[in-house]
TrEMBL record:
It comes from the Bacteria. InterPro entries: Adenine_glyco (IPR005019), DNA-3mA_glycosylase (IPR052891), DNA_glycosylase (IPR011257). This is DNA-3-methyladenine glycosylase I. Transmembrane segments: none annotated.
Length: 194
């Protein structure tokens, strides 16, 4: 069912998903759709979006600090050096999502991130797929789950050795880091993307 922006008790309009739970609200108001900078920040968002696949975003946000601790604050060199013992350690960690395919993809993606440095780095690579800004979505039904750019980004990342980076997951990443601004018309965060 399509939903328009919701006005909260504070009088501010928000995307419906960011108007309820305090953790979602804080993420919506201070981070989602805003540009991040640096390799670790981009690797973190890419990793968390991959872990979120099939789960609620709130589940990931509630475990975010545990993910940061488990994955060395998303330092690509540190995670790229993880071996089979580290994978087993992570699979035994109740503080994160324990999905072997996703854990192994996180290590693979850290290694691919290190390799991308020879070609300008992860941040520049992701931002090279930024589409032209579109009109503000009026309702949640107007927000796509993928785009031509997220499909192209997914293919390019796979070619560069990344795993678990499908078009829908990459579209969510693009939203998270401000490559696209899908804050709804009437949301006070609309326009926060650079």
């Amino acid at each position: 069912m399509a939903s328009a922006a919701v006005v909260g008790d504070d009088g501010l309009g928000r995307c419906p998903w960011g108007a309820g739970d305090p953790i979602n609200l804080a993420y919506h108001d201070t981070e989602w759709g805003m540009r991040v900078s640096g390799e670790a920040a981009h690797l973190e968002r890419l990793t968390l979006e991959a872990f979120q696949s099939g789960l609620s975003w709130l589940t990931i946000l509630n475990k975010r600090e545990n993910f940061r601790a488990a994955f060395a604050d998303f330092d690509a060199d540190a995670v790229a050096a993880f071996g089979p013992d580290d994978v087993e350690r992570l699979m035994a960690d109740p503080g994160i999502v324990r999905n072997r395919r996703k854990v192994e993809a996180a290590v693979t993606n850290a290694r691919a991130t290190v390799a991308l440095r020879e070609h300008g780095g992860l941040e520049a690579f992701l931002w090279s797929f930024r589409p032209e800004p579109g009109p503000a979505p009026l309702t949640t039904a107007d927000v796509p789950t993928s785009s031509p750019e997220s499909i192209a980004l997914s293919k390019a990342l796979k070619k560069a050795g990344f795993a678990h980076v499908g078009p829908t997951t990459m579209y969510a990443l693009m939203e998270a880091v401000g490559l696209v601004d899908d804050h709804l018309e009437g949301c006070h965060r609309r326009g926060c993307a650079v």
